[in-house]
Amino acid sequence: MNLNALAEQFGTPLYVYDQSALDHALDRYTQAFPEATLICYAVKANSNLSILRHFAQRGCGFDIVSGGELARVLAAGGDPAKTVFSGVGKSSDEIRFALSHQIKCFNVESLPELDRINTIAAETGCRAPVSLRINPDVDAQTHPYISTGLKENKFGIPMAQAEAAYQYADTLPHLNIIGIDCHIGSQLIDLSPLVEACERLLPLVERLQAQGITLQHIDLGGGIGIVYHNENTPDIAAYAAEVRRLLAPYSLQLILEPGRSLVGNAGVLLTRVEYVKQGDGKDFVITDAAMNDLLRPALYGAYHQIDNISAPEREARVADIVGPICETGDFLAQNRLIGAQAGDLLAVRSAGAYAASMASNYNSRPRAAEVLVDDTGAAKLIRRRETLAEMLANEHNLL
Ligand code: LLP
């Protein structure tokens, strides 16, 4: 793939995704896990319609967290019957929207949410399929902002309340209890917390069964980490083997909600160097991409590998690679060994997940374009660069 040519053709900043890498990442899941496993791609990782359509055509379902994400799944031709709806704060409108499209399941995160879904299902004369998201109180050993399975996190129903929550759900006439789920965090580089979470849920499945509450599926969430730097990431086959062993005594369909591991390493963010500034003690490589295009370094101190792809031979120096935004936190990398001059093209690696989908217009910067290189090598513009007029379009100048 000629990234320099793509930057010339489409301009920068530019997200470029590689379709064969998407396929390869999905193949790793489908080969490791039993055929009956439903892979619900986590839309939040990269919600571009073409990416969603690609996964839909490959048979995936979707994990959504808003009505907006459901609209995207529908627009991309995704199957609502393979779509699960996660999130702690589903609004009444979102629940109504999802019910009207007969999604597979609501992953319910609180008792008041159970009540709300029951009431809305009653109004619409249906029974809503629900699974309870249990917070297993397991430390995912990841960045605190993306750790979700500890009892101090806002997510899920505490383990200690889980059985009573199922019993309560069972009394609500417009709910159909079909599953159990958890999601303990993202960018997991150790398998043991994932396995432990599953181990904690299964005794509950048994206790519920004894009370006549029979579940059809278990959803273990997303969370396999990817390589950004030098992480030792988990082996999907080893994860699958553990899960297969744990689930063998049960007749439960397995659902997974991977996001990052399907798209993260399939994308790069291309950015042009505007200036190189010699500071007092260190250099600053100032690029045309900024924290509004890739928030992860600013928000989590995340590491992304950055390569000079137009002039790789330049002598490297230690520099901060920063964007034009007026925030000290606006950096793509700090204290990085890089050789760069104005006009050079840099590739920020592993930018397929949580990059474009977390982008904003901060500093009134239009959203960057996205390109998908298909398996024939053809580059398709899957989101055109936002124009200034589009960026202003929803606002009124009333004064
Ligand atoms: N399922 C649920 C309910 C989730 O909340 C998430 C991610 C996933 C699945 C997908 O997890 P994955 O397979 O991608 O690890 N913005 C952060 C990541 C936030 C993840 C939020 N939830 C980042 O850039 O690292």
From TrEMBL:
Residues given in the record as pyridoxal 5'-phosphate binding sites: G223, E257, P258, G259, R260, Y354
Q: Indicate what this protein is called per its UniProt record.
A: Diaminopimelate decarboxylase
Please give the PROSITE patterns that the UniProt record associates with this protein.
ODR_DC_2_2
Could you tell me which Pfam families the record lists for this protein?
A: Orn_Arg_deC_N, Orn_DAP_Arg_deC
Any one GO MF term held by the record is: diaminopimelate decarboxylase activity
UniProt record similarity statement: Belongs to the Orn/Lys/Arg decarboxylase class-II family. LysA subfamily.
Q: Tell me where the signal peptide lies.
A: none
Q: Which gene encodes it?
A: lysA
From what organism does this protein derive? Conchiformibius steedae
